[in-house]
Amino acid sequence: MGWLWAIIVGFVLGLIAKAIIPGKQHSPLWLTTICGILGAMAGNAIARAFGVDATRGIDWSRHAFQLVAAIVIVFLVDMLYMATLGKRKQTT
Q: What 8-state DSSP symbol labels residue 22?
């Protein structure tokens, strides 16, 4: 059940990150979901480093760290995706 939640949270974080980043992102939905999962994991690690990993109620600060990490990862991966896709389209 943990992997199912990771996929759902990654999907939602990835979509929110794509909506926040200005301009059009060209990465496919499966890659956005993976970036969201990585953002959630990185955000959890950063929150743990700041000491906000175990709070009572809704962990808004942990979710903020997850979202910021997802935004950065989606942005960087989309740049890499377009760089490799652009090179591939130029050669064919």
A: S
Amino acid identity at 13: L
CA torsion, points 34, 15, 60, 50, in degrees to nearest 10? 40
Closest by CA to 69, choosing from 25, 20, 17, 7, is 17
Q: Where are the alpha helices (DSSP H) in the chain?
A: 2-20, 29-50, 60-91
Q: Residue written as tokens 């890499």?
A: 80
Tokens describing residue 33: 């979901």
* Predicted confidence (pLDDT) per residue in 25-41, tens digit: 888 999 999 999 999 99
Distances, alpha carbon 80 to alpha carbons 23, 57, 68, 73, in Å: 15, 37, 19, 11
**pLDDT over 80 (residue 88):** no
**Which residues are CB-contacts of 75 (< 8 A; sequence separation ≥ 6)?**
17, 21
